[in-house]
Amino acid sequence: MTSLTLHYHPLSSYCQKVLIAVDMLGIEVDKRLLNLSDPEERAAYLALVPTGKMPLLVDQGRPVPESSIIIEHLQRHHARPGRTLIPQDPDAALDVRLWDRLFDVYVMTPMQALTADLLRPEGDRDSLGVARAREGLSSAYAFMDRHLEGRTWMAGDAFSMAECAAAPALFYAVTYVPFLPQQVHLAAFFERLMGHPSVARTIDQARPYFKFYPGRGGLSRRFFDPDDPISKEG
Fold first, then answer.
1. How does DSSP classify residue 34?
2. Rounded mean pLDDT of the chain?
3. How far is Cα 44 from Cα 220, in angstroms, rounded to an integer?
4. Residue 13 in contact with residue 169, Cβ under 8 Å?
5. Does the reported pTM lie above 0.85?
6. DSSP string, 126-152
7. For the domain bounded by 4-77, which CATH number is listed?
8. Can you give the C-alpha Rg of the chain in angstroms?
9. Among residues 185, 174, 105, 113, which one has the least CA distance to residue 142?
């Protein structure tokens, strides 16, 4: 029995980021599906992590929060030999951490703001906040597309923690703000991400829950088909 417990939900972008890393690093974890709408479960979870944010890794009773820290912890202490998402070279590692941070702040954050707005009652919607979030995504797409010219991955020659962040961030972000036709490098990068086995497995785990995603109208039918029996599960 594994000493690692991951509290998560398959629909969460930050949980998907860690799930991709777990798969890439070849680690066995006990996955605990969170239902924070249950008062008792929420209270127990808040006792572990007062912010209430997910995911949360518990390693032999020690709570390890925050997706990037979880991934670094897993690589340092539990990864299979030869499996890495953060290079040993300090400068290369900084580059990976930079792009991990950029995807979290400039793609994941505005995407989540757009999702949160859809969860508000019609009269409480924030049109100015939505416009700013859309502008933020458009700006991020532009500089990421420029960076990707001539590159396969964001940092270095290998799939890294940067891609763990990029895959769920872009997966949901494009449901609100699609790539422009001229952003061919970013679009090709997105397709590489979606075709990567660890990413594809993580998306498949979330598929039964996409019907609960507020932005599901923007999901490609290859990911979410309301008439597909798998999409009706959950």
1. -
2. 95
3. 37
4. yes
5. yes
6. -HHHHHHHHHHHHHHHHHHHHHHTT-S
7. 3.40.30.10
8. 18
9. 185
